[in-house]
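We read letters as residues; the integers encode the fold. Take this protein.
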Amino acid sequence: MNSLTGMTQCSSGSSEHYRRAVRITRRRFVSYIEIAAVLMLMILPSVVFSQDYLVGERDVLRITVYDNPDLTTVARVSGEGTITFPLIGEVKVAGLTMQQIAKRISGLLSEGYIVNPQVMVFVEEYRSKKVTVIGEIVKPGLYELPGPTTLLELLSKAGGITKDAGDKAIVKRKSLQGERSITVDLRKLIEKGDTSLDVALQDGDSIYIPKAGFFYVTGEVKNPNVYKFEEGTTVIQAITMAGGFTDKAAEGRIKIKRKENGQEKTLEKVGLDQLIKPDDVIMVPESIF
């Protein structure tokens, strides 16, 4: 009886050990899948960008042909937009994607040289794409794009924005339809980490970081002064930045002097939730009581 009980306990213990091992293995497997998914999400944007990348002058290409290692070629794109490839000579590649270049070389090789050639093209050095960044940036100038580059990466490469920079970046981009502007909220991108605003830059882009606007707070506040303007600032936020009201402040009679279309006007008895604009002068009068 004891022997039977022992065997039963042993069997039960083995089953539980097996089930535990299965659960651990399953959890690890799920974890591996999750990690792989995250890595794919990180890598995918660069892969998609690379597939769409148009090769240009000074880019360096690496070209391989399956089962023909002697044809492996590393070539820089000339000023005429061409490279020289074994057997077929000069090939026009500027303005094409890597897939299009592979298809072109494959077609030329199949004309009496190799049966059904499998060609692969990679960009070894990105040198043809350039962008300009100006305005409130530490190191303004012309920059080459070393492959897929986002706005945030470029700003970092250019030393970051200055202390006087506004909260917007303006990306001007030319296309066949004309020039268009992309406005990026730098506060959301840099301070809040909203990577959906991190624009992928293209050849010829011009990035402008404008100077921040300012506003003025005068009268019965503790620290009357000039303050940096940020989009969405209200009167009460401006008053708070100026240290708050003094004991003599007439909180219900706040005025704003504002310039619009070259004309100066005064807004009377503005509410505390009133939005302010750059160059506004917020005046807090003294209470008559």
Notes: The chain has three domains: 60-125, 130-209, 214-284.
